[in-house]
Amino acid sequence: MGFSGQFLRSGALLFLIAGSILLSGCRSDVYYQNRAVERARKFLLANAPELSVEQIYFVKYNSPILLTAPILDKRGKIEREMVTAEQRQICVTWAIPGMDKYYLVFGSSSGRMEFWYPNRLIRKTFRQFSPPLNAAMETARKYALNYLYEDMSVTEFNEVRFYFPYVIETKFEYVLDPTGNASQEEIDKVRTGLEKKTQYSLVWKFPERGEAMVFCGASQPDLTGWNVNFAGWVPFEELDAETIEVVRTPEDATTPIEVPDESEEAAEKRDSVTEQTESAVQPEEAAEKVDPVTEQTESAVQPEEAAEKRDSVTEKTETAAQPEEAAEKEDAVTEKTETGA
Questions:
Q1: 30-57: string of b/e by CB count within 10 Å (b at 16+)?
Q2: Residue 186: is its pLDDT beyond 70?
Q3: Buried-most residue among 96, 155, 252, 278 (CB within 10 A)?
Q4: Is the model's pLDDT at 43 over the cut of 60?
């Protein structure tokens, strides 16, 4: 009996252990996400001494926003070959009242956040850029990822990836035949197309190496249609020599690039074209002027016609007067005949 009781107690213990293992394996994604958020909350409060009491309570009792993005491997490609699930950058984020920046607790894990732990606290401002400028930055970043990743350290690449560049109007010599196989006619066509646009360079500066990562391209004056012509490391001295004007800096990044007012020279050219256009229209005006002259000539001819008509009326009048004269003559002849009788 003692043996059977011991067996039952052992069986119950094994059942409880198996049940706990089963229940622990069935935890939902929400459980892991809540646990990760609590870790992020503690990490933020331990590393943000500038928060007031009210702001601390806001972090404690308000749910955050989860911002996610893929992770790049050492070749700059998105990691997808994972054993369990795709690894992602996950930032647990609070928009704290009274603060002009978002507070992001950075970490990485799968989407379940089962093994998410805080790595660092980031204070970040999300700024809205004009659409042409935003498109230009995305074009430069994709170019860096595809062609320049091996030429930059991880820190340098992240600088290009996450920070705003200098936008500089430059005068670099364009690369017109990157493959070396174009004909002279094709090269001239490319040069003509580029000369009609404004050259802008997106520049990330790295003072520790005395060089800048420059992405040179051409576009409309407001950066619409900007595309990379060439890119690479350029010493500060060479960049300064090729600079025409610094259009935007990281400090005024959100200000749209406005098309400059029409210059006096352009206005003079426009007026000259307008005058030429008006001169081209003059033959029609001359034709219109001929018609009044013709009308005046016809008016001048009218007195002769009127005179002719007057003579015609006179003739008719004289013709109409002839019967009376004939009657008078007839009366006179009659009187003479009567007298003779």
A1: eebbeebbebbbebbeeebeebeeebee
A2: yes
A3: 96
A4: yes
